[in-house]
Structure formats: structure tokens, C-alpha cells
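Please check this protein record:
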Amino acid sequence: MKKLYFLFCMIVAGSSLVHAQIQKVVADKIIAQVGDKIILRSDIMNALSDYRRQGQELPPNPECAFLQGQLIQKALVLQAEKDSLPITEDEIDAALDNRIRFFIGQYGGKEILEEIAGKNVYQIKEDLRQSLREQKLAEDMRRKVLENIKITPVEVNAYFAKIPKDSLAFYESEIEVSQIVIQPLANRDVDDYIIKQLYDYKKQVEVGVKKFEQLAKNFSEDPGTKDLGGQMNMNRNDKNWDPAFFSAAFKLKEGQISPVIKSKFGYHIIQMVSRSGDDAVVRHLLMIPPVTDEEVKIAVQKADSVRNLIVSRTMSFAEAVLKYTDDEQGKSNAGTIQGKNGETYITIDQLPDNFLVRSITDLKPGEYSKPQSYTDAQGRKMVRIVYLKTRTTPHRESLKDDYNKIAQRALDEKKQGVLEKWFKGHLPDYYITIDKEYNGCSSLADWWKYAAKN
């Protein structure tokens, strides 16, 4: 029963629920049961697939770990129903609406989501209703078990004292950095000229004068695909594409060329090379409207005005991000530059570019850089203001400098112990079955102990 608290949190965070409704399961079977709650093989495989899709690192023996997580969830749901934890259909409807809005944003539109799922939004919501209800009940039950668990300074000190001195973590200098990004706007005449050029290239391919791949090699400004004739692979379940580009690409039939599409990178034409289920091979030709020094200067002046509002405390940095940044992701997190796993404290080598490294070199915590122009990874000229919130010095972990981190670990350990004790007291009350193919899962030893009696 090790690490129940963390494992349950991982399963909840890793499962998006919607993919189970979207993916077509060829073969399925019941692999476990707790009370009247069954677990299907597809539940495990979909959870694994979602976790990989989100770029998360899988635990050892992932199928065993995800089955254990599902067993934990089902047991918590049973107890929540036994305890009559309150949950209303209004709550479920609100959660479903939020989930659908999230996936519409991820897939690039309501029509795309419905096309991928083969169902309308109402049908998707109904398919998700029971799964989401169980997830919420399990979360509420876990919260009830742990709601009164606190950690005291004495307990934090005791937890820290148990850590061998030679095992204390060493922290490099860490920083918290946020930014406001302003994209200089090209002259409208330049935009019109590029759009006209792209339509001309499209016509040349359609009448057979030129091949798309040759035009891409000669004129595309995408360094990643230019030498490949603009060719790249896409999958309908990949959420990392620009929504406008993604939507336009998957509307095409084989051999068809899109109209000119504007994305956050510039203007494109896209050709569908081949389609097979959710996989597609496309070519694209990207042209980025050039901006002049004068247009960069205008963006710098705008950024300087924004900085003055912040420094004079007329507007907070977070408010300025929401109102002025051209970085869509930044709008959702106050412009914070995050690490791979979403952490806000990062090391210098985790900064996305050398321009940003230079921007904070002379800043003290709490200061804002002057507007600086730079070239981003896509080759676009941009302007930004950088806010250095905090900077730590390299050090060995200590209560003085890292109390909050240590206290959180101590609290998590305490919650883990409470949850393990709770489960050991309740497992004998449940009817449990597990498929024999999972005999080798050592993490399920406690579950097998009670399954064997059935």
C-alpha cells in the first residue's frame, strides 16, 4: 500500500477522461472489481496513453501502478456513496461544461472535437458523466479522510532531523521570472503582399506549374521543415499545434491545398499529403511578415509605457500581462516562465533563450527590465519586459531557507500514512477481484490478500 496518497493524486492528474470516449477500443475485458465498481483494461490503457500524451514520466511497472490507482479510486467512491457524501447534478454539469470548454480549446474548436469523437458535445458529456461523477466522489472522500491533517513546526523539525546530512538536497540558484511579450506589427501592406504571394504559390501548384515541396524548399521560413519540402507528421490527438493551423490541416482532403491561414507564427498554405485515421502527413509553406526597425521601435515605446504603469503602481504586473501581453499562454499564468513540470522556481539553464538570460543578469529581485527587443525561436522580432521576482543563492537544504518545501514534504508524508492506515482498515470490507495476469504486481499485495478470500 505504499504511496497511496501520491499515487491517487497522479492518477487523477493524469487522466483526462475524454480520450476514453474518443479512442476506439478493439478488445476489452474486466480486469478488476471493487464492490460493484468494475475496472476495464481500456481504463488502464487510456490512462497510460493520456499520461504519455501530457509528457509525464511514467512510474515503474506502469500498468500495475495505474491499476492500483484505479482500485484506490473505486474504493474511495464506494465509501463516499456509503457515507452519502453530497454531490449534485448541478455540480456535475458545471464540471462537464468546464471539461468540454477545456477540450474545445485543446483541439482547436467544437467541430474538431465532435469530428474526432464521432459524437456531438451533448453525447460526449453524457458519456463522461459517470466517470466524472466517480472522480469527484473519490476526490471528496480523500479530502474528507485528510481534511484535518495539519503539520506543526515541531513535526517539520522532526522530519528534517531524520534526513541524513549527506542526503540533504543541494539547490542551485533558482529564480522566479515573468514577462510581458509584445509583438511588433508589420505594415498591413506587407501582410497583403505576403498573402498575395502565398495565393500565387497555391495557384502554381494547383495548375501544375510547380511542386509544393520545391516551393517550400525555396521560400518557406520554417527552418525545421524547409529542407524537407515543408513536410511534417501530425496526429489529431496532439494538442500542441496552433489551433488555426491544426483546424485548417485536418479539413483538407489528400492532395488539397488550404487557403492562406494565419497562425501565431505567420501566414501558411498547407497541403494534405496523406491521411490514415488520426495520423496525417502534410506540407506547409510559412512566410513571416517582416517588421522594420521603426515598427520594433513602436513596440518598444508601447512596452515602455506599460513598464511605467507597473513601476508607478498604477497597474500590477499581473494586470498588465492580462491586458498587454501577446503571449497567449502567459495570459493564463501572469506571464510566469515555468519549468518542465510547471514549477515556478527554475534554474538559469531552464530559461527558454539566451536573450532572457541577459535580460535578468543585472536585475535585483523585485525589479523590472527596460523593454528589450529579441528574436524568438521562430525567427520573429519581439519585445518584452522581464520581472525578476526572486533569486536564491546556491545552498544545501536548510530549515531557514527551504522551510516551505520541507514542510510540504513532511505534510505529504503524514497524509500518506493516514491514507494507508485508512485503507488497511477498510479493505476487508470490500469485495475485490483482480485478474490473474496481474499476479506479478507486488504493489497490489494488500489487495490480493483480500481478493484471495473471495
